[in-house]
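1st attempt posting a full record on here, be nice pls
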Amino acid sequence: MGKRRIKKWQALAIALSSALLLWYLFCLPRNLFPDAEYSTVVTDCNGELLGARIAKDGQWRFRIEKYDAGREKYYTALIEFEDRWFRWHPGVNPVSICNALISNIKAGHIVSGGSTISMQVIRMSRNRERSLKQKLVEAILATRLELRYSKDEILHLYAGNAPFGGNVIGLDAAAWRYFGRPADELSWSEAATLAVLPNSPSNIRVEKNRDRLRAKRNRLLSKLLKRGHISQNEYMDACEEPLPDKPESLPSYSSQLTDDLANNQYRNGLNFNVILSINGDAAKAGDKTAGKTIHTSIDLNLQRKLEEILQRRSGELALEGIQDMAAVVMEVESGRVLAYCGNAGRERKRGGVNVNVARSPRSSGSILKPFLYCDALSDGIILPYSLVADTPVNINGFAPQNYNREYEGAVPAADALTRSLNVPCVHILKDYGVARFLDGLKERGLTTFRRSADDYGLSLILGGGECRLDEVTAAYAAMARACVHGEGDATALYYTLDALKDVNRPDEIDWHLIRSVKKVAWKTGTSYGYRDAWAVGVTPSYAVGVWAGNASGAGAQGLVGARTAGPVMFEIFNTLPSSSAEWFPEAEDGVRAEVCKKSGFLAGPYCTEKDTVTLPKAAPHSRICPYHYRENGEDVFRLTPAMEWFYRRKHPEYEAFAGYGKNESSGFSDSPMEFIYPENGSVISLPKQLDGSLGEIVLNLAHHDRNATVYWHLDREYIGETRFIHQKRELPAKGKHSITVTDNHGDSITVSITVI
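the predicted structure (as tokens):
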């Protein structure tokens, strides 16, 4: 009976011991601070602080990813002040507890708790009332903490969660708020100050307790001197250092980027990378950024230069009613963002929110033209210098004009891009196809084109769609990167970038002759109503994008890409480091072919002047020169009547030929006339006069023979004749109409229109 009772008690003891052991093993939560809210902290490529945003709970609390030996001054001061035997005890120091007990008895009240650093970590994680019972629980949990974590990790937990007065939690936040520097750059005086603060965080208040805080700091410095951690000179210098007066403002570089990250509004995109890691881990698609430490590709030194330039330029433009400006600098090779300013404007508050215009959709103006030129080259629609029509065009009421309101009849495609002529680009887009071009823009990472190709129409190439500065700059950088590496249609890319280097620079005359000037392939854009000014440029190493305007959408006279954004872009380029590659390498994937020197098309049998050049891969499928043909045994060059009518104004060397008979070698119709306006099949909306009445339309015709007489008919009804200048003003009724013209030689042409 006795043996049975003994066994029963043994079993009970074992069960109880096992239960206690299990409780001990699992008593410590895996996450000691599950409810902790963290500030969003943004650093540059070298770990320098760019900016931060306060946590959701209103606390400044920086996430410390791991123990950092660079904070050794603070850790040394902390151990000396709080727990001298920290490196040796198992979480609880009986000697400290006994000493605390004696001190409390002598004082008649609690003056010391005898807590170790490990016990304080447990207390901060539990946030319970201070009592003897809780003290005992903390002691037990502290020993368990020591079994799970190393000493360095426990120091890390303490440093990340200790209160430092007010709404400042954790060492990193405290170092920046009180001393304006990272924790690994603290002086001995600063480290000692922060080591004593969690013991009594109210001592940091400016208006009182200053002497008490200074005394505690100096006593700790004396201990550090006594233990041999600092020299006599270091001790004396540290004692002389002033205490912080009040929390300092945190750095604020690339503030709009920080705002976006704090609101989970920014992601790495196609060709655009600014986030290197989040909380020390590689960034993944869909990662949230709020409350995290985000390591970015921003270079702080370059960021400072960028913001200085934009602040100064923005201040100058504000006098002209231009309030907002943004810029992006990217490294071509990696696609990483090196500097980013979402808005340097002075009047950029909208509803209390800082508008980031770098990622706001804005009318593109002409900034997309290089993509069209490159795509058309790759498809064989044009050749680098093939002539493109520069004549009036009206397609279903869409009647684009060049910036100077003039026409040249025909211009080489590269010149149309270099000079940003609107009408030739519209002709190219019409041939290439709006839908195809739109798909290409989306493939380049431009995410803001969400309407159909029919909705955009041909106006897409002239600012009919909206895009973002960051995405456009990334797309230009991707073009440059592909050209450097010979990827895609490298020859088309090279011709595109080579044409863009010849764009006239602001305030520079004959810049080609200045050897020190960097070669930059660049393009400007100006939206309708002078609302947006763009300038984007690339070199083999860098891409720079600049936008200027008003975030409100208000226009400003003089807001022109070349004048407003262009100078800023070049000033930014001048601050960038030099690179070994001055210009893009000539592509090796092209084909050799003969081209007509006059037309730029593939040379035909009747072309008199030819040249053998390297062309994009699709060039063999391009058109044979349509402007050379044989007439009466002679090889002649002839443009279409409409092209000729404008072309010979600026090209007196152009020889017009009289023969317009049917000729199989010609690519044209046999008519010597061509309507400039309207085109066949046009849908015309009659203009409204000031009094509300409908206005007339101006019919315009080009004729090869300057002396020809032309007879006009509207729906077979004679309406008059013209000579020399062939224009007629008419007010046709709504509905379908035919317009027929006949010259004095009996040649005739007809177009059909619809008036709405």
